[in-house]
C-alpha cells in the first residue's frame, strides 16, 4: 500500500507511520510521504535498528509457530543481512535476546493458541469532504498485525517491540498508543472471527547496555476508545487536506527536528533559504515513496 493523497481517484491511504509524521511535523510529512524524499545516503540499506527489528520479528514468528528456539536463531541470522556496523545490535546480541526471551516466556506462551501471524490489512475507515468542491475522499488505513491469538476463547492481538529506551512511563504510554488502537479497530473489521477483539499485548524486548529484559503490557480498548480513534484520524486527514489544498505545510520545529538524538533528515532543507531548496532537493535526496506492500 502506497500511502498518501490520491486527488485524481479521491482516495487517501495512510498507516501509523505516515499519520505520525504529519502529527509530528506537517513539513516532515510533506517531504517524506507527499514528495517521497529520502536522503541519498539512506537509499542503499535499511537502518540498523530497522533491520534488527525485522530479523527479531522473523525469530518471534518461528518461536510462536514452531516452538523451536534453535531454528528461530537461524532465521534471525538469515534475516539480519548484510550485518551493519552497530556495536549494540550485533548478531550475537540477537541470539542472546532470542534465547533469553524463550526462557522467559515459553511457558507463558502455552496459554495462547496462535490464530495467525503477520496479518496485513487495508480497511476503509470512512470519508472526508474535499476542499475543492469535488467528491469526498475515501480513507483507508493500513498496517501489519504481528499476531492474532486466542486465550480462553478470547481474541487478542500481540505486537512485538524491540527497544533500547527504558522509562518509568513506557508502559503507561502504551495505553494511549494510536497504533495499537488502530490495530484493534482494524482487526474487528477484517475478519468476523475477530469482531470481539478488545485487547492487544505489547511484547517488549528491551535491549539494555549489558543485559536483556522483557515485559508485556495489555492495552484494552472499549467501543468509545475505538470510535474516538477513528474520529481523530478523520480529523487529522482534514487538516492534511487543508495543507495540500493551500500548498502550505507548517514546520513544527524545534522539538520535531530531533528524534532519538538524531537530526531530522530534512533539517538542512528546512534550514536553507527558500530559493535554494529546489537545488538541495535534487542534490541531497532521491525519490522513494513510502509503500508497505513489500514490508
Query: What order do the helices and strands follow?
Result: EEHHEHHHEEEHHEEHEEHHE
Q: State the total count of DSSP E strands.
A: 11
Mean pLDDT: 92
Low-confidence stretches: none
Number of helices: 10
- Strand content is 25-35%
Q: Please state the structural category.
A: alpha+beta
**Backbone CA Rg:** 20 Å
Q: Sum up the overall morphology in one term.
A: globular
CATH-assigned fold name: Lambda Exonuclease, Chain A
Oligomeric category: single chain
Give structural notes.
This protein is of the alpha+beta class. The protein has one domain (4-44, 111-287): Lambda Exonuclease, Chain A, CATH 3.90.320. It is 41% helix and 26% strand. The protein has helices at residues 16-24, 26-34, 48-66, 69-79, 91-109, 170-174, 178-190, 223-246, 267-271, 277-284, and strands spanning 4-6, 11-15, 37-39, 113-128, 137-151, 154-163, 199-207, 212-220, 258-259, 262-263, 285-287. Strands 1, 2, 4, 5, 6, 7 and 8 form a 7-stranded mixed β-sheet that branches. A two-stranded antiparallel ribbon has the order 3-11. A hairpin with an 8-residue loop joins β4 (113-128) and β5 (137-151). It starts with a strand and ends in an 8-residue tail after the last strand.
Secondary-structure map:
Blueprint: E1 4-6, E2 11-15, H1 16-24, H2 26-34, E3 37-39, H3 48-66, H4 69-79, H5 91-109, E4 113-128, E5 137-151, E6 154-163, H6 170-174, H7 178-190, E7 199-207, E8 212-220, H8 223-246, E9 258-259, E10 262-263, H9 267-271, H10 277-284, E11 285-287
Parallel strand pairs: 2-5, 6-7
Antiparallel strand pairs: 1-2, 3-11, 4-5, 5-6, 7-8, 9-10
Helix pairs in contact: 1-2, 3-4, 3-5, 4-5, 7-8
Amino acid at each position: 500500500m502506497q500511502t498518501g493523497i490520491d486527488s485524481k481517484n479521491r482516495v487517501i491511504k495512510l498507516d501509523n507511520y505516515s499519520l505520525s509524521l504529519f502529527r509530528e511535523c506537517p513539513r516532515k510529512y510533506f517531504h517524506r510521504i507527499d514528495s517521497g524524499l529520502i536522503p541519498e545516503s539512506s537509499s542503499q540499506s535499511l537502518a540498523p535498528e530497522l533491520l534488527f527489528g525485522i530479523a527479531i520479528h522473523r525469530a518471534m514468528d518461528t518461536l510462536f509457530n514452531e516452538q523451536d528456539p534453535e531454528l528461530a536463531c537461524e532465521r534471525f541470522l538469515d534475516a539480519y543481512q548484510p550485518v551493519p556496523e552497530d556495536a549494540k545490535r550485533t548478531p550475537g546480541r540477537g541470539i542472546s535476546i532470542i534465547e533469553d526471551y524463550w526462557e522467559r516466556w515459553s511457558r507463558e506462551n502455552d496459554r495462547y493458541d496462535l490464530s495467525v501471524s503477520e496479518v496485513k490489512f487495508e480497511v476503509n475507515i470512512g470519508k472526508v469532504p474535499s476542499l475543492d468542491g469535488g467528491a469526498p475522499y475515501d480513507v483507508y488505513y493500513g498496517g501489519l498485525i504481528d499476531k492474532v491469538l486466542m486465550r480462553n476463547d478470547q481474541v487478542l492481538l500481540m505486537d512485538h517491540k524491540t527497544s533500547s529506551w527504558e522509562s518509568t512511563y513506557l508502559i503507561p504510554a502504551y495505553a494511549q498508543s494510536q497504533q495499537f488502537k488502530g490495530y484493534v479497530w482494524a482487526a474487528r473489521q477484517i475478519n468476523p472471527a475477530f469482531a470481539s477483539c478488545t485487547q492487544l499485548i505489547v511484547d517488549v524486548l528491551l535491549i539494555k547496555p549489558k543485559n536483556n529484559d522483557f515485559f508485556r503490557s495489555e492495552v484494552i480498548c472499549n467501543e468509545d476508545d475505538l470510535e474516538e480513534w477513528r474520529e481523530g484520524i478523520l480529523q487529522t486527514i482534514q487538516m492534511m487536506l487543508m495543507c495540500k489544498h493551500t500548498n502550505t505545510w507548517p514546520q513544527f520545529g524545534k522539538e520535531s527536528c530531533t528524534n532519538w538524538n538524531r537530526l531530522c533528515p530534512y533539517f538542512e532543507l528546512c534550514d536553507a533559504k527558500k530559493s535554494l531548496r529546489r537545488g538541495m532537493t535534487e542534490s541531497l535526496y532521491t525519490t522513494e515513496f513510502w509503500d508497505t506492500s513489500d514490508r
